[in-house]
Specification:
hydrolase; alpha+beta; HOTDOG_ACOT; HotDog_dom_sf; 26% helix; long-chain fatty acyl-CoA hydrolase activity; five-stranded antiparallel sheet; binds acetyl coenzyme *A
């Protein structure tokens, strides 16, 4: 399989915050943002693998900044690392000022998707070659995050998480 670059999976989802999507403080409901990010990540995973992608885990979500009613929200999703059948998708969420067009970073999230065939069985995905400095940083750290996610899910013994253990020695 020909390796790909993260830019080939870039998915940008731009949408408004409507009244039905807000909490009592008139800010975007967390679950609505999670769903939008899942959609963007699913498209990014599909662009990288050209397969059906299922969400295997949500590894990290930081709701750093609330997103008010009426905001223009931009979600950027890109595959940050591809393993054998799984892909880490890194999501950056921005609020765009209507007047100036200036973007403010609101949230970040990291999802893991697995490429599957029509019967739901995991299938291999192309390798990824990071290009920019940020892509290289995210690529390097992705193996640690995969090991942490597998340990927390009870799918990996902590003693086998070599990359993760290296952080503490
Ligand atoms: C877009 C959507 O919303 S889809 C709907 C929500 N998602 C779903 O319904 C998915 C349901 N879950 C499943 O179908 C299965 O559990 C799968 C396909 C995700 C994984 O199946 P498994 O039988 O565990 O397969 P397997 O053990 O071979 O793992 C497949 C890959 O997933 C990775 N993986 C599995 N669980 C996790 C996890 N919790 N965190 C990180 N990676 C994981 C494995 O490390 C492996 O990666 P690799 O092949 O790149 O090394």
């Amino acid at each position: 399989m020909t390796p790909k670059h993260p830019s080939e999976s870039l998915t940008v989802l731009t949408d408004l915050v409507l009244p039905s999507e807000t909490n009592p403080l008139n800010n975007l409901f967390g679950g609505e943002l999670l769903a939008r990010m899942d959609r963007a990540a699913s498209i990014a995973a599909g662009r990288h693998s050209r397969r059906i992608g299922v969400t295997a885990s949500v590894n990290h979500v930081a709701f750093n900044k609330s997103i008010p009613l009426g905001s223009v929200v931009i979600i950027e999703a890109k595959v940050s690392r591809a393993f054998k059948t799984s892909m880490e998708i890194y999501l950056d969420v921005w609020i765009e000022d209507r007047q100036s067009g200036k973007r403010t970073k609101a949230n970040e999230a990291i999802y893991t998707f697995v490429a599957v065939d029509e019967t739901g069985r995991p299938v291999e995905v192309p390798e990824i070659i990071p290009e920019t400095e940020l892509e290289k940083q995210r690529y390097e750290a992705a193996l640690r995050r995969k090991q942490l996610s597998l340990v927390l899910a009870g799918k990996m013994n902590a003693n086998d998480a070599t990359e993760l253990k290296a952080l503490f020695v």
